[in-house]
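Support request, please re-run this one:
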Amino acid sequence: MADADLEAMARDELSRATTLRWQDLRGIVPWGDTFEGVSPAGRYVEVERSYIWASEEGGDILCEVTVYAGPSRYDAGERVSSTIYRPS
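Re-run finished. Output below.
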């Protein structure tokens, strides 16, 4: 069952994470980080953000964000993703 609070935070973080340009990311992919935050409903959560090659190195970049209520609840978190396309 989806958690609307976690999903809202994941989508908000994804909107920020995808503002980075492909040109700025290409030198650090694969890369990710995890940080603590507070969800829209006031819950303490962990936010994991990662950038990986979508299929082949040097191509499009897949950005994934997962928001979850602590390490033991990672599998119950909400994950969203978006592609940052390589410029043509």
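The helical segments are 4-17, 22-25. The CA atoms of residues 38 and 44 lie 5 Å apart.
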